[in-house]
Amino acid sequence: MFAFWIDFCFLPFCHPSQPNYYKAMRTKKSPKVDLEKGRSLFFSIGLVLALGLVLAAFNYKTAVVAIPERGTVNWEPPEEIIIPVTRPEDKKPEIKPITIHEIVLNLEAGEQELDFSDYTDEIDQGVGIALNPILSERSPEPDEVAVVDFAEQMPQFPGGMSSLLSFISKSVRYPAQARELGTQGRVFVRFVVNTDGTIADAHVVRSVDSLLDAEALRVVRLMPRWKPGSQNGRPVRVNFTIPINFVLQ
């Protein structure tokens, strides 16, 4: 107030030519309201506080609350109750092994060779194989004598197995179409040797190809009479199976 009163009272009487004119024009400030005096101090205090808050924020950690452990409960699902289902047992007919004589047909450079070996095998008689009606044709039987799979004296080809080998070697003809297609495999032919030695009921029990099946049946039906099998000194009809293996070399 005092500075304002001085300016108001004396400025009208001053002239720019007077030496104190510009000095009188300066703004008079009270030292109590001069903010420039403590500016640097306030800036330093604010900077220190800001840095302190930043450091406190980085070092602040959330308190970890420990939760007391509780006892664990082991739960197991109830056991599944399985009710057994009883089924009537299927009685399967007993299958007796069949003596099989294997004849291997090997062809090379137009020649026909047969290797013969004896072995015993078992064929599942309960499994049928769909064949051409011509191949599965049955010959009429001369009588109603039962056919057995084994006999005390088994049937024999005239002259033995070596003669049977020679007969098939001379009689078999490898089908030309099967040769061109490279078809080969083992054909199982089953037949009955009657009490008079004749061959009956020749049919394929395991097929490879219709051409090879037909040739195997043709050769078997051309065989001469065998020496019949006998049981207790009496001739009996006996089943006989021959696997013929057609191999191209």
TrEMBL record:
* An example Gene Ontology biological process: protein transport
* One Pfam family, short name: TonB_C
Gene Ontology molecular functions: energy transducer activity
A GO cellular component term found in this entry reads: outer membrane-bounded periplasmic space
Q: How does it sit in the membrane?
A: Single-pass membrane protein
Q: Where in the cell is it found?
A: Cell inner membrane
UniProt keyword annotation of GTP-binding present: no
Q: Which UniProt keywords apply?
A: Cell inner membrane, Cell membrane, Membrane, Protein transport, Transmembrane, Transmembrane helix, Transport
Judging by the UniProt lineage, the source's domain of life is Bacteria
Q: Which InterPro entries match?
A: TonB (IPR003538), TonB-dependent_transducer (IPR051045), TonB/TolA_C (IPR006260), TonB_C (IPR037682)
Major place of localization? membrane
Q: Which residues form the TonB C-terminal domain?
A: 159-249
User: Do you know which Gene3D superfamilies this protein is assigned to?
Assistant: 3.30.1150.10
Family membership noted in the UniProt record: Belongs to the TonB family.
Listed PANTHER family: PROTEIN TONB, PROTEIN TONB-RELATED
Give the protein's recorded name: Protein TonB
Q: What is the lineage of its organism?
A: Bacteria, Pseudomonadati, Bacteroidota, Bacteroidia, Marinilabiliales
